[in-house]
Amino acid sequence: AAAGGAGAASAGGAAGGHFGGSGAGAGLLGNSDVERFCMKWSLDERAKAALRDLAASNPAGAQEVMMQPITEEVRNPSGVIHARVMQKTGMTKSRGFGRARPY
Question: In angstroms, how far is CA 100 from the centroid of its own chain?
Answer without folding.
Answer: 14
